[in-house]
C-alpha cells in the first residue's frame, strides 16, 4: 500500500484517496516543434526502474495536485511537494542522492 | 411556498451507534485567498476567524471548517444560509472570492454513541484514534467523498446530497447491532 503525505493539507493519505496523474515535469513541445518531438511529448515516458516523479491528486481530500518522488521497485517515498513548480526542490534532490548515490538525476 | 425537505427527511437508525440524517442544515461554501485581510474581516462580522489547516471552529450556532488551501465551509441554521451568503458576498465584494449557498447540495449525518468511531473505521482509510477534536478530515467513505469531525458524543459527517441514500446505507450497515469491532 502506498501512503503519500499531501503537501497542501498535510494528511498522510492512503493510495485509494488519491488519483494518479502520470509522469511529472513533462515539458510541452512548443509550437515550432517537429512531429517527432511532439509525438515524444505525447507518448514517450521514461518509466524508469528507479526514482520516479509522479503527479497525484488528493481527489478525496483537499482536491489539490502534488508531485511525489518514489522508487518504482522498493516503493520508498523520498518526498512530496506542490505541483506549482517546474523542477523538484533542491533539498529533495539531496535526499534522493543521499539514498541512491548512483542516481542519474531527474531530467 | 413549498416546504423544504432534507435529502432523507431526518432518517434514523439505531445500531451499536445512533445514525441520524440531521434534517435541514445550512452550508455556505467560501472560495477565497485564506490569507487575505478581507476574508478575516468578513468572517469577523459573523464572530468567526479563518481556521488553520484542517481545523473546524465554532461560534454559537455557526461552524467553520477548513476544506482546502482556498476553501472554507460554513455550517449554519438552514434559514440563515441565504442571508449569511449575501452578507459574506457583499463583504468580499472587492476580493477575488466566491460565496455559494450549497445547503441543498449537501447532506449531514450525525453518528452518536461510545462506539461512533467504529462506524467510520470500517468505511474510511483514516486512523480514527489519532483524529483530534477540532479537526475536519476529508476522505472517502467506501466510494464517495465525505468529511467528518468530532463533536460532543460522536462524529458529524457531510456528503453530497446526490449520494445521501448510499451513505445512509453504508452507515446503517456499518452500525448494525453486533457488528462492532471491539
TrEMBL record, chain A:
<dbReference type="GO" id="GO:0008115">
    <property type="term" value="F:sarcosine oxidase activity"/>
</dbReference>
<protein>
    <submittedName>
        <fullName>Sarcosine oxidase subunit delta</fullName>
    </submittedName>
</protein>
<dbReference type="GO" id="GO:0046653">
    <property type="term" value="P:tetrahydrofolate metabolic process"/>
</dbReference>
<dbReference type="Pfam" id="PF04267">
    <property type="entry name" value="SoxD"/>
</dbReference>
<dbReference type="InterPro" id="IPR006279">
    <property type="entry name" value="SoxD"/>
</dbReference>
<dbReference type="InterPro" id="IPR038561">
    <property type="entry name" value="SoxD_sf"/>
</dbReference>
From TrEMBL, chain B:
<dbReference type="Pfam" id="PF04268">
    <property type="entry name" value="SoxG"/>
</dbReference>
<dbReference type="InterPro" id="IPR027266">
    <property type="entry name" value="TrmE/GcvT-like"/>
</dbReference>
<protein>
    <submittedName>
        <fullName>Sarcosine oxidase subunit gamma</fullName>
    </submittedName>
</protein>
<dbReference type="InterPro" id="IPR007375">
    <property type="entry name" value="SoxG"/>
</dbReference>
